[in-house]
Structure formats: structure tokens, C-alpha cells
Amino acid sequence: MEKKLMKGNEAAGAAAILAGCKYFFGYPITPQNELPEYMARELPKCGGTYLQAESEIGAINMVYGASGAGARVMTSSSSPGIALKQEGISYLAGAELPCVIVNMMRSSPGLGGIQPAQGDYFMATRGGGNGDYFTPVYAPASVQELVDLIIKAFDTADLYRTPVMVLGDGMIGQMMEPVELKIPEKKEIPAKDWAVKDKPTKGDNKLINSLYIIPEELEEHIQGLFSKYEIIKQDECMYEMFNCEDADVISVAYGTSSRIVRNAIKKLENDGIKMGLIRPITLWPFPVEAFEKIGSKTKALLCVEMSAGQMIDDVKIANEGRLPVEFFGRSGGVVPKPEEIVNKVKEILGGNK
Amino acid sequence: MKTVFEKTKGLTDIPFHYCPGCTHGIIHRLVAESLVELGLMEDAVCVASVGCSVFTYKYFDCDAMQASHGRAPAVATGAKRVLKDRTVFTYQGDGDLAAIGTAETVHAAARGENITIIYVNNAIYGMTGGQMAPTTLVGQKATTSPEGRIASTNGYPIRVAEMLSTLDGTAFIERVAVNKPANVIKAKKAIKKAFQTQTNKQGFSLVEILSSCPTNWSMPPQDALNWLEEKMIPYYPLGNFKTPEEN
């Protein structure tokens, strides 16, 4: 199929439409505006509805209503806007409503800045809102992967009745790359017989709800969510291991930072240093399994993030104390340079190599 | 024997959790009766809110969605955009609608969403135990305005019906009360008109219903009904603020 040069944010919209998304509730925030703008232009052409909400809170609650009505639905925002959506995401998780939420991260905390960053790792992988829940999180490293993961995210959402986050950053959203927009394979999705759709027959009223006032009933509900999360951990974890065999150091990076790490790997090769890369594609569930495959030659792990250090906690958990875990990160919207990573690796190896 | 009155089939048999003397029960009955009489009960999708009305999804015999605090109009918007032919209504109190949910309410109204809002104004936060609401009258005591609402520090109560009727997106807006039989009859008429506005696809409809809260007003039920008449109605005048031309 022919490849098309597309901006990440627009490709995300095109992928959602391919996946059968018919409703999009948006609110402007840099650097993701091209996504709602694309949906406003393109969704009506295929019988869908784009609606600009009064706020991110409004948008995520419209998602709740549309998802509760059985529709494939999406919303998008960037860091401070995603923080506002967390109330709704907790309710979606509690009511087991499927939807896709795109976060094109910018630098934070607070109003922060508008340059790309990865400071929402905690917010994305720790539930983010109130209570006991997780949401699957996909972290694309290219525009093509963004397209593929958005399509996958809709299936995962429907399959497990859960909100799913696609976590990009300003770089992924803003850059242009060639993409192939394939019509996705139809995945077997259970019928949404829980949704409010057709008129109920007597005694078959549908209820979309996250309220369980009896503690034992709520506990049972939460246990149900966590049994589901166990299956997601087993079946939906995705990662890539690159150049890891006999590597001196293995870096761990996702999304945009993993691209910079690849450049550093090439540069280190010239100096006779072999660096591998573990690239989590799902951030939750985190690919613990990859760390069990690390060979005996590897001396250290290097976590590279566009933050002051968040994923490093999961790297340490997955590493189980086997190797020293080092960190290199730039935050505030500063993108790390490959040379900086090279220097950090040399520092770790202490010139022994 | 001929049945002269029976409980509407639009309500389930689950006993209400409302306090004695609370008029939520009357309002539930009116909403359910209106939907049944209009043949809309099976069509209806109730969006429940947070506050005393949190369990409405148990009481109305129809499909329902439970929304977070204040967000019912946004949830109803999402639902109605998908379910264009069903009758989507929210049932919200004054704290939910006129404080935390003001943005969702005003913008659903401004967009002219074809939904119906049943807005119960009892001038207090009931479920949480009698805190000051956006509609608490100046001078009215609440647990967070123990000396009575003071305008210089707490500002003034919001007249939702008047405010929303200034928006071009709204089609039907009326304020009613349920403190005496004549008002109850008028309230039911307004509720029916609101639902008809939606089925006629005429746009946003809201009925503000002045309701009593004997428990948190610290009054016997009859005194509460009198207080509603004497104190609330003068500040919140009853009447229609907007009707679609065809209605």
C-alpha cells in the first residue's frame, strides 16, 4: 500500500477513523491541536460526530456517555489537560467503559511549557485518578507505530472494557513521517450487551455505574478489575529488544527518547561499545519479562527519559536488583542529545572498556 | 373495585432512601408519571448525578448512567449524540448543577443539546449534611454558613432558570415548586412539556423545581413547605422563562 507523509497528530485521527471510531470529544491544547482539527474535518465525512467540549472534563465525560451508549469513542489532550481528564478516566475504569485517550505530552508540572517531554509516565501508568485501577498504556516511537497502536488500542479497550491511553509526546504529534494506513484486520470483539443502546425489554434495564455503596460489593468489583488486569499483563504486554545480546550496557527508553538512544547506540559502536535497548511499547503493563532475558555480559542498565526520572522506578522493579540502574534524563522540554547519552555510557563503564 | 390511583409503573419497587418530608419523592413520581403518560418510559435514559439524587438510577424503571459530580449534562451530551432517538434526561440537585457542574450545564444549554434536565433546587447540600449551596439564600443557615449566608463573604444565590434562559441554545425553561397541590400539578405540566420539547427535537429543556429539605433546614416538613413558599419563591419566582414557538 502507498505510504503517505503525515503529521503524527493527523495520522492518529486517520487511524482512529480506520478503527471505526465514530465520536470524538475534543478541547484545544498545544501540541495536539491537529488531532481534534483533523477529526472535526474528517469525522462528519464518514458519518461520525466531532464535538468541541467546554473543557477537558466535559470532553472525558462526553466520552463516558458515548461509550456507555456502545460507541467507539476517543478524546485527546496534552499533559495539563490529561490531568483534568483523570476524574473521568477513574469513572470510565470503574464503570468498565472502553475508550481511547491520546496524550501528546508536553513539559510540566503546572502550566510548564509546550515542548515535548515524558513527565506523565507516573500519571499514565499509576491509574492517574482516584482509586484502585490501571489503564493499558501504549507508547509509540514513530508515526507509523502511533497509527498501529491507536488501531490496537480500540480493540484492547473493547476487549477488556477499559479506557486505554496512547502516550506520545509533542515530538511524535508534530513530526511528519511516511505512514501506511492499512484497513485493520477485524478482531473478534464480544458484543456490547452491557451498553445502553436499544430500548430495553422489560426487566432488562442497562446501568452504567461505578458506585457500589456496600464495601464488600465494591471490593468484589475491584477484585474483578484486577483479575482482568492480570489477563492484560499476561496477554497484552509489548516490548522490543534491540542489540541486547552480549551488550555492555542496556538502555531502557520509550517513545521519542528511544529514537535518540538508537543514535547513541550507533555512535557507541564506533567506539567499540555495544549498547542494547529495551523499548517498552506498553508502559502498563510494563515488560518485566524483557529484563529476565538480559545476558551475563551486561554490566549496567541505563534508563533514558525526557523527565527527571519516572520509568526508572519500574526498571528497578523489573531488574530485581540484578544490575546497577543508571539514569540519564533531560526535562522541561529539553530533548537529550545522543552525545550526552554516549558520555553517560562511557562514564558508567568507567573507561574500563 | 375501580382503581382511582396507583403508583406509577415508571418507578421500581425499591424503597426511596430520602428523608421523611423530603419532596424528592414527589418529583420522582412526577417525572416517572410524565414519561409513562407520554409513552417514553422505555425510551428514557436517566443520567443520575451526585448528591441526594445519586441513587435515582435505582428508582426510575429505565436505562441509566451514573455521572460524576456535576458532569451529568456532559454525560447526557455524549449519550444523546449516540442515541439520537432516545429520551435522555439528567436529574440533578443545585450543588451538582449550579456549583461544580456550572460549566457543563451552561455549555450543554448553549449548544442546544436536545436533552432534558430535571433540576431540583432545595437551597442546600443535602447528602453531605447541610452545607451552603450556590442557591442558599442570603441569611439562610447552613453548616458552612453557621451565621447564615453573608453576601459580603459568600456572594449571592444563583437563579439558574433566568441565567440559562438568556442563552439562544435553550428551548424550554420553567421554574416550578412542589410545596402544595396546585404547584405540583403545574410542575407535572412543565416536566411533560420539557420532555415533549426533546421528542419534538426542539432543543435544550430544563425544569427547575423548588424542593424542601426538612432535615437540613432543621424544620418539620410542613414548616419547610411554608418556608419554601415564604422565602424561596420570592427570590426564585415561579413561571415559564422560555417555550418553543410550536409548544
Question: Could you explain the architecture of this structure?
Answer:
The complex is a heterodimer of chains A (353) and B (247). Chain A has helices at residues 8-18, 34-42, 56-68, 79-94, 121-125, 143-160, 170-174, 215-235, 255-270, 288-292, 311-319, 338-349, and strands at residues 4-7, 23-26, 49-52, 73-77, 99-105, 137-138, 163-169, 176-179, 207-208, 239-242, 249-252, 275-280, 282-284, 300-305, 325-329. With 353 residues, chain A is of the alpha/beta class. A seven-stranded mixed β-sheet of chain A has the order 3-2-4-5-7-6-13, sandwiched between helices. A five-stranded mixed β-sheet of chain A has the order 10-12-11-14-15, sandwiched between helices. A two-stranded antiparallel sheet of chain A has the order 1-8. The mean pLDDT of chain A is 97. Chain B has 247 residues and is of the alpha/beta class. Chain B is globular. The termini of chain B are far apart. Chains A and B meet through α3, α4 and β9 of A and β2, α3 and α5 of B.
Question: SSE layout and pairings?
Answer:
The complex is a heterodimer of chains A (353) and B (247).
Chain A: E1 4-7, H1 8-18, E2 23-26, H2 34-42, E3 49-52, H3 56-68, E4 73-77, H4 79-94, E5 99-105, H5 121-125, E6 137-138, H6 143-160, E7 163-169, H7 170-174, E8 176-179, E9 207-208, H8 215-235, E10 239-242, E11 249-252, H9 255-270, E12 275-280, E13 282-284, H10 288-292, E14 300-305, H11 311-319, E15 325-329, H12 338-349
Parallel strand pairs in A: 2-3, 2-4, 4-5, 5-7, 6-7, 11-12, 11-14, 14-15
Antiparallel strand pairs in A: 1-8, 6-13, 10-12
Chain B: H1 24-37, E1 44-48, H2 56-59, E2 63-66, H3 72-82, E3 87-93, H4 94-100, H5 102-111, E4 116-121, H6 151-154, H7 160-165, E5 170-177, H8 181-199, E6 204-210, H9 214-217, H10 221-235, E7 239-242
Parallel strand pairs in B: 1-2, 1-3, 3-4, 4-6, 5-6
Antiparallel strand pairs in B: 5-7
